[in-house]
Write a structure and sequence with these properties.
Length: 172
């Protein structure tokens, strides 16, 4: 018997061992229950709430945390005429940036020069040799994997969300 014939006949042979009542009893015993979801499992920020938050941040640029727990955080940010002084990277956190309006420039990757660690799992450096510049405009999404040096410069104005999936340090 070749492999193809075996794959076609094996399920029928397996089913032939059980009687119909036994088959029904078996399938009933393996059915799973549907989980119950409550408002503790989700959060909604309405379009109106987001628009209100953006207007407030345009009047006074900065960030507003929309959600945060031990697994990830979401921040809404409005920046005007800013430039990071140093490259940063994170050992336990990724970044997903979605540009809602305006534009900004990221410098990504390379080899950090003069690196230091202000706290566990975080790195800073004044420069990163070989970093690549990427201009992001409205609608763009950038994923920065953990451990990747990055630095942002916003010559005019940008509005974006930053989602940061996190994982705890691995014990050795």
């Amino acid at each position: 018997m070749n492999r193809r014939n075996f794959l076609f006949t094996a399920p029928a042979a397996a089913g032939a061992v059980l009687s119909t009542p036994e088959l029904f009893a078996l399938t009933a015993s393996v059915q799973t229950t549907t989980p119950t979801y409550t408002e503790a499992n989700f959060m909604v920020h309405s379009c109106e709430e987001i628009e209100h938050d953006i207007k407030a941040l345009q009047a006074k640029p900065g960030s507003k945390n929309l959600y945060s727990d031990r697994n990830f955080a979401i921040d809404l940010t409005v920046e005007q005429n800013t430039a990071a002084k140093e490259f940063e990277w994170h050992e336990y956190r990724d970044h997903i940036i979605h540009i809602l309006d305006g534009e900004t420039v990221y410098e990504l990757g390379g080899t950090p020069q003069g690196a230091y660690s202000p706290r566990e799992g975080e790195g800073l450096a004044p420069s990163s040799e070989g970093a690549r510049k990427v201009k992001l405009k409205k609608g763009a999404i950038l994923v920065i994997r953990r451990g990747t040096p990055h630095k942002r410069t916003t010559p005019h104005s940008v509005t974006f969300t930053l989602t940061g999936p996190m994982s705890p340090p691995v014990s050795s």
